[in-house]
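Session log. Operator J.P. requested a structure for one protein chain; no other inputs attached. Running the standard single-chain path with token output.
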Amino acid sequence: MNIVEINISRLQKNNGYSLPEFSKHLNVSTSFIPQVDRGKTSVSITILKDIANALDTKIGSIIRLLLRQVFIFFALIVKFDFITLINTKHKGGKI
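Structure written below.
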């Protein structure tokens, strides 16, 4: 999983665009968006700018969304590691 990925199709759907419409706004093929969503390809800063323009927002909002996703991803890892640590110690295991 690419932790700095963006679910473009969710943004596209939440803003009322069909895949062909949104692809046209971004000047990319319709296969590009699903590839990004699956982590098969990454987005350039130009594409991020085009996404922001298509959604009538600023690129900073898109970047904040990405950073929030990264923060949540790392928070989940830390929480999992903490729970594993507690369970190991509770069972008398060495840490």
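Operator note: The chain is about 65% helix and 0% strand.
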